[in-house]
Specification:
Blueprint (H helix, E strand, L loop, with lengths): L1 H9 L5 H13 L9 H13 L9 E8 L14 H11 L4 H9 L1 E9 L9 E3 L17 H20 L4 E7 L4 H14 L1
Parallel strand pairs: 1-2, 1-4, 2-3
Helix pairs in contact: 2-3
C-alpha cells in the first residue's frame, strides 16, 4: 500500500509553461494550425509531462498485463480463457496487432502475467501472478481490496523497471477475455433481473 500511496503523491501537475511553448511551436510549423489533431495534443501534453519543450521519445515500450476474468462463467466472452495464455506470449513475440504497431513505432513489448488461468510459466512473459484469474463478479467481488492494490503496485513496479532501464514512453495495455467488457451489459442486466 505504501508504494501505491507514494506513487499517487508523486504525481505532479503538467508543466503549463512547457505546454504553452509546445503549442506555440506547433502553431509555427508549416501546416494549418491544428491539422495534426490528436498528435498535436499528445505532443503538447508530453511537453507538459516531461517539463521540456523538446524531449526524447526514442526508447519506447508497451507493457501488457494479462489475467482472466471470473465473470467468464456467465458466458460474456465468446473466446475461451485458454486464448489468454496463448496470446500474451505472442504479444511479447510481436505477432499480434499490438506487436505490429510496436514494430512500426520501434517499441519493445513486455508481457506480465498477473492472473492468467494456468499453472505453467508463459514463455517470455514476466510472472507476477496474484492468482489464477479473478472471481466471478456476478456472484461477488472479483478480487479483494488487498489484491486490487497489489495488482496496481505490480503495475507500478514493472513500469518503474522500464523507467530505470531508460524508457521514455510507455504504453500500457491488458490481455484477458478481451470481449468481456463488450458483453458486460448482458451480465449486469442478468444480475439486475435475478
Amino acid at each position: 500500500m505504501e508504494l501505491f500511496k507514494s506513487t499517487i503523491a508523486s504525481i505532479a501537475n503538467l508543466n503549463e509553461e512547457m505546454m504553452k511553448k509546445a503549442q506555440e511551436r506547433q502553431d509555427l510549423l508549416i501546416k494549418p494550425k491544428g491539422s495534426l489533431g490528436k498528435l498535436e495534443e499528445i505532443s503538447i501534453q508530453l511537453a507538459g509531462i516531461y517539463g521540456q519543450e523538446f524531449y526524447d521519445t526514442t526508447k519506447k515500450a508497451v507493457i501488457a498485463f494479462a489475467g482472466d476474468h471470473g465473470v467468464y462463467e456467465e458466458g460474456v466472452a465468446p473466446n475461451a480463457q485458454e486464448i489468454t495464455k496463448i496470446q500474451i506470449p505472442n504479444y511479447v513475440r510481436k505477432i499480434t496487432g499490438v506487436g505490429a504497431l510496436a514494430r512500426f513505432a520501434n517499441a519493445d513489448v513486455y508481457g506480465v502475467d498477473v492472473g492468467v488461468n494456468c499453472d505453467e510459466l508463459l514463455p517470455g512473459v514476466i510472472n507476477r501472478k496474484i492468482r489464477k484469474g479473478t472471481s466471478n463478479m456476478a456472484k461477488g467481488p472479483a478480487m479483494s481490496y488487498e489484491e486490487a492494490i497489489f495488482s496496481i503496485e505490480i503495475g507500478i513496479e514493472e513500469t518503474n523497471k522500464l523507467i530505470d532501464a531508460g524508457y521514455r514512453v510507455i504504453g500500457v495495455g491488458e490481455m484477458g477475455n478481451e470481449t468481456v467488457t463488450i458483453n458486460l451489459n448482458k451480465t449486469i442486466q442478468n444480475c439486475i433481473e435475478v
